[in-house]
Amino acid sequence: MEQEVGESLIQLGNSDGSNSSSSDPVTRVRKLLFRRMLVGIKDGRFFLGTFHCLDKQGNIILQDTIEYRSTRRSSPSPMEQRCLGLVLIPSSCQNSCHVDCSVEEQLSLLKV
Amino acid sequence: MADKPVYGEASIDGQPSKLASIPASDTTVWADASPLLQTACAGLRDGELIHGDNFNLFAAMSALEIMDPKMDSGIVCTYYSIDEAIENGAAPVPISLDSTIDVCRTIDIMDHLLACEAAWHKGHSLAQTVFSCIYLLRLDRTAPHALLHSYCRIIRATCKAVVSVVSDARTHEEEDLFTMTYGLPLNGDGDDKCLSILNAVEETISRQLRACKATSSKRRLPEDLEPLQSNPNLEEGFCKALLCRLRFRKHFFHVLSCMKRPQGRGLESARKHIASCLTELESILKSADFLRSCFDESCEGDIDDKTTASGFEPIGFDAMLNSRLSAPTPPRAIKILSWKKAVEYFVKLLNDLDVICSYSLDPQLESLLRFVVLFQKSQPDLVARSHLQILNHVNIVEQLLLVQDGKLYGRDPFFAVINKAAALPEATKNHDIQKNESFLQLGMVIANFLNSNGVGNSSLPNKLVMNLLKILCTNSAWQRRKLGKFLQDWRVIYVQLELAFRNEYGEVSSSSNDENTCMKIFQHILLWVEEQTYWIAFRFLILGFELELYSTGEYCMVYWYLYAVLIKLAEKTHLMMAVSHDTAKRKGKKKKDSPKDLARESRIPPAVLFLQCYICLAEGLTMMLAALRNEIPVFHSPSPFNTEHEKFVQHFELLQRACIPDYVSYSSYKESTTHARFSTLAMYNYFKDAQRIAKEVKSSFSNDPERLAELRKLEQVAEHNSVAQNVICRLGALDPSLKVLFEFSHHPFFATVVVKRS
Questions:
Q1: What angle, rounded to 10 degrees, do the helices at B666-673 and B644-657 form?
Q2: Count of domains in chain A?
Q3: Is B66 in contact with A88 (Cβ distance < 8 A)?
Q4: Does the predicted model carry a pTM greater than 0.90?
Q5: What is the domain extent for residue A79?
Q6: For the NAA35-like N-terminal domain, which residue ranges apply (chain B) (predicted)?
């Protein structure tokens, strides 16, 4: 589901024609380091932390991470949270990945 | 926590609604980065990472891996929360609408809780054992179900009582997971009433039992009573199975509260409740056959692995719901004990507690220490050890340290220790000396000494004794490490006391009678401290055998050191006894010295002879091992890793640092063992001495079964070793195929020598 959202966002960017950043994706991901990143995983939890590292397999390391989980499968809230610190989120269990950015930045930064 | 929703576009973009509750900052939004990350990954070379300047691969290794069952305690398994589990019917109240099934499942829950409790006592976290029970986590829900409610309530109260004993005793250093109760609903209102609730339920069921027995014998029902459940054929069996379970809980709770009473006043009643607990446990075990037979369907798998008597999986448990509460530690694999093992555990625990309750509260420090050491031999678990510690602390030590009638020193425990333990009591208590100026001066000296050591009050020696008892109650491995370090404290106290006294009194040989008495008191104190120090060193060394820290190649040096420590211990004990004998005699208003008295005095006291027996065995083993090493090349095989000197340092560093005993070093060890030969061994047999002493001294301990048993063991070892030594001396040098083995079949730390021809 999140995947679709991402694609729609990209398409939006493409149709816009504002291709301001044409550098390669690795450089652009590098620019995302130290930003707040929100990773959703398959069992429904979310991890919010500072983007620390990414490897070729897509595993992500976050710093100062907070875990969010809902108390029910059916309804999204209320959320429970706890601090975990440094976490490694294997790509196999990632469901979604969002970064914190300003609206203006959003389109240019994330285009593929 | 969400002060504002993520951003307006969330709904426009069709963002997952969950994101709405996790806010970005004021002016920013969550933008999907996964497509970008995917393309970036494709662009990376193998092993290449995207990271910042602060990245450190080594530090990154310590990252918590999400969804790894060994590291991630937050994995959502079945349910997201307790409430969700309850809404999904994971813990229904009542458990079943069919009353027979309901009773049956209730018994399963009781049994599984017992298994959980045992697993907790054995070192798992409370959150993942007892509190994996959803009923316990939401106790109020069970209120309509009197049976379940009363049982859960008493379980909670029991857990609370046990946590408080263990945390008060602080014997759990390495088992500190035990007292972690964060986030668990351990403190419920009205748990003080748990016994009355339980009693009411028990009363109802015993009436139901009576009623069903009356029906079966065709008598009229004396009371109008609803049966426990609907199947009359099973009524009696169920009533009995429930009664023993409820009564066990009741008595166990009583045991815990009786043992807490001050001055050991509850110990006698605690023993009665322990006996009742053991009886109920027997009935619980017996009820298993009935519970297994009451349904036609049988469960799969080995019944001995099950956590319930019936073999059914219990309803209402989920260990994963709570696993996050054990953070920050990673989740541990939990193996709940089987029901049978759990019952066995409780039998052992109760027997250990019974031993504690049977202690006579003898205010003699020496007998207390012996009792603690003896108690440790059965390897009691944490809960039992904590109870001993609490008992020591609350009753015996206070009694020991505060038994005093003099107003001046009644609040000063230090003198009480010395009075009691250094065998001064009668003389000093009754003597005018308490009012004497010199004695007051002595008090000042000690107070000054303690103040100058930054203690501030006179609790230091007090603390030493308390610490010693505390250490002796911990598990063997921890105990040994602590004892080794603790030796230095005793040594320091000794040296400083000696210095303080010498400064105060110098080399006075004043004729004043009072001064002389004060000098004597100093000597007693110093002697007592020394005796304790060597006793600790001895214990430190023999714990190494229990923990299997010594290899056969090292036995020689270990026995040699043991010998050196024992010699000192025997010497100090002998002096102490002479001194106290002296004191006792003076109290007896000086009878005329009869020749009989003189004869008795010149004899060595049995307690010293007992140590003498140890000494002979240690010396004999040292010499035999040394001779074997010196004369048979096979025994002299230097290790490729450590030299003998290094091993010596490793084993005895703590003793050496504290100078215990004085002037003992690796070189003195080498010196005393390099000349050992078979020819010298043949001339003098230490084991024969040991055997003779053991035989002689036995009669003096006829009313002390524990030491008598020890002496019997020593005699056996001595006899075997004496024969083995003869064989080795005759054949050793000639027969290269001779094999010498060391076994601990007769005694835990004196090896029996076995000679074999290969």
A1: 120
A2: 1
A3: yes
A4: no
A5: 25-110
A6: 47-186
